[in-house]
Amino acid sequence: xxxxxxxxxxxxxxxxxxxxxxxxxxxxxxxxxxxxxxxxxxxxxxxxxxxxxxxxxxxxxxxxxxxxxxxxxxxxxxxxxxxxxxxxxxxxxxxxxxxxxxxxxxxxxxxxxxxxxxxxxxxxxxxxxxxxxxxxxxxxxxxxxxxxxxxxxxxxxxxxxxxxxxxxxxxxxxxxxxxxxxxxxxxxxxxxxxxxxxxxxxxxxxxxxxxxxxxxxxxxxxxxxxxxxxxxxxxxxxxxxxxxxxxxxxxxxxxxxxxxxxxxxxxxxxxxxxxxxxxxxxxxxxxxxxxxxxxxxxxxxxxxxxxxxxxxxxxxxxxxxxxxxxxxxxxxxxxxxxxxxxxxxxxxxxxxxxxxxxxxxxxxxxxxxxxxxxxxxxxx
Length: 380
Known about the structure:
By secondary structure, the chain is of the alpha/beta class. The protein is built from twelve helices and 15 strands. The strands form four sheets. The chain has a five-stranded mixed barrel with strand order 5-6-7-9-8. Helix 2 packs antiparallel against helix 4 and helix 5 crosses helix 8.
């Protein structure tokens, strides 16, 4: 054990671990080896003496009162105060007698067990470090090469030094991959599997993936001049994002969409052509809900706050007959996304009449009705 300090420093450097962690791993491995080779019921401890470059292993025996019930014949971890003072007169209750042991005298089998225990401990530290590293990446985009696709169409990806898995349920409908492809996804969760080690679950269907792609594409989002307040997706079909800004000279929707839609289209292309609607966020629920239902023009919103944590807020939205199909959207997508975006159960109430707007096309910006304009003015 003369070169023990050099061994510790070498392991720490090669594995990218803290020296203190390797020292703890080694001491724990040595104690476990001593229990295995000598007696599992005894108490052992280890100490690393860096100045002398020594690793010390010793048995510990606690000093207890002379009449302590711990002093039975089978328990060798305790000694009476009377007997302890015969060994060292300076000992007192609660102190320990320490008997140093020579590890080298335990034989080759002990060395093999020590190596196995140390390897196990080091691996646990590596996994804990990797677990922390990738937990910090949850919600962030990663990319990697596809190495394997199983019979259930779960896709396995190399992400740096770990394996990532893209379950079929986390894949956009209609997407097809093959081994060798490079794909992007967002880290959804990180777990340690006993058989496969550290596994990183990734996803291409969560709203977080959309948000992360937008941040990568839009400088104003990256610089936090524009903020994504909420997002909702029907993966591969349509999405809505709510945007806000504290910068008076920035149009949050214009910044995210980009000139001629170049920014939003670049993100849409990575999501199998998913249509992305941008709406301006408002802290006033009635205004936010009316904007979330765009391109429909809303007459009025009656909002009821959620009664408790398990409930969703409710809103009764009044619209004219000609706006109903726009509010609901094809296959109900628009109202579903608006409900998800605002975290509100939305009920549509149709009234007679027609809402007139110069820009009444499906993709045109929403025109404020008098009711909504008055509503916004009320809360300014």
